[in-house]
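Appendix B, example 12.
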Amino acid sequence: MEISTTFKNIIFDFGGVILNIDYRLTEQAFAKLGLRDFEKIHSQKAQEEIFNAFETGMLSPGQFREEIRKYIGSATDNQIDAAWNSMLLDLPAERIVLLDKLKKSNRIFLLSNTNQIHFRSFSAYMENKFKRNIFSDVFEKAYVSHEVHMRKPGAEIFELVVRENKLIKEETLFIDDSIQNIEGAKKIGLNTVFLEQGKTILDVFDF
């Protein structure tokens, strides 16, 4: 199936789909700060309310750091931020080339569960590497959870993207590497592609 011609609209997740990430690196970094069971309070499948609150903008970066200190005791803001950002890796240039091609024939959007600390970090990385604001330059519109105060897999954030951009669900594809987010998109009638570990968006599109 040629996806770019089958679907008029494509909604992309960011971390794990466009940006490479590795949750284990943050787990290891927090372990060095004294938090040995990070995977129990944060994982791709489930997470404590602190992370949900941070990703929906209910906690400021300062409040988030204070919550983390309840688990690890004394640590500087920079130490916490560095550990938290350890999961953020690289963004291969060929993925941006693909997105630039896609936007010529499709309406493409970004829908990401993220937070202020991560957002600042990878925005600076992209500006430095590509000399572009990828969010505004590549995508028709980017939706990030901490700004819209809702997150995947909740139906309301998918409906927001559909409603604001007047998308027809049957003509819209959502791509994510989290099965719970895929299931959330399916529930409201979106077509989906689950990006399995080891696969990239270059494997999805035939260019």
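The CA atoms of residues 62 and 77 lie 8 Å apart. DSSP finds 13 helices and five strands in the chain.
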